[in-house]
Amino acid sequence: MAVKIRLQRHGKKDTAFFHVVVADGRAPRDGKFIEKLGVYNPNTNPATIDINFDKTLDWVMKGAQPTDTCRAILSYKGVMLKKHLLDGVKKGALTEAQVEQKFSKWLQEKTVKLLLKRTI
Q1: Domain that includes residue 88, residue range
Q2: Number of compact structural domains in the chain
Q3: Residues 63, 24: one domain?
Q4: What is the pTM of this model?
Q5: Which residues contact 68 (CB under 8 A, 6 or more apart)?
Q6: Are residues 26 and 83 in the same domain?
Q7: What own/partner pairs with CB < 8 Å and gap ≥ 24 does 7-15 have?
Q8: Residue 74: in which H helix or E strand, if any?
Q9: What is the pLDDT along the chain (120 residues), one digit of tens a residue?
Q10: Same domain, 73 and 113
Q11: Shared-domain flag, residues 82 and 61
Q12: Given this model, what pLDDT does residue 29 score?
């Protein structure tokens, strides 16, 4: 069974919002899913992304394949970076402490960039 992380459409005609779900690749877009991971609302400015980081990371580490749009969302939230760093731990290139240090540094830089962007 090919498991995918993808968007499930909800909302009215011109005001769609999406649930980020884990589903079997053969299931229809708005059909049956395994687990809901979060919500993505592109109608707000900036877009609202509310994702359960730990659950999503767990599914990605198990091998669930995100669609292109979901990959962009997960990269924005740092899930794909954390997966990349944890793969380095498996290979022996990094330690857990180094992973946490690099990830926290990335989070701090990202929050600074967002604050600067919102003030301009």
Answers
A1: 78-120
A2: 2
A3: yes
A4: 0.88
A5: none
A6: no
A7: 7/40, 7/67, 7/69, 7/70, 8/33, 15/43
A8: helix 68-77
A9: 689 999 999 999 999 999 999 999 898 888 899 999 999 999 988 889 999 999 999 999 999 999 999 999 999 999 999 999 999 998 989 889 999 999 999 999 999 988 887 776
A10: no
A11: no
A12: 83
Q: Are residues 61 and 89 in the same domain?
A: no
63: left (phi over 0), alpha (psi -120 to 50) or beta: left
Query: What is the rounded distance in angstroms from the CA atom of residue 100 to the CA atom of residue 112?
Result: 18
Structure tokens, 50:
């509310």
Q: Find how far residue 46's CA is from the centre of its chain.
A: 16
Do residue 71 and residue 84 come from a single domain? no
Own/partner contacts of 23-30, CB < 8 Å, gap of 24 or more, are 25/1, 25/65, 26/2
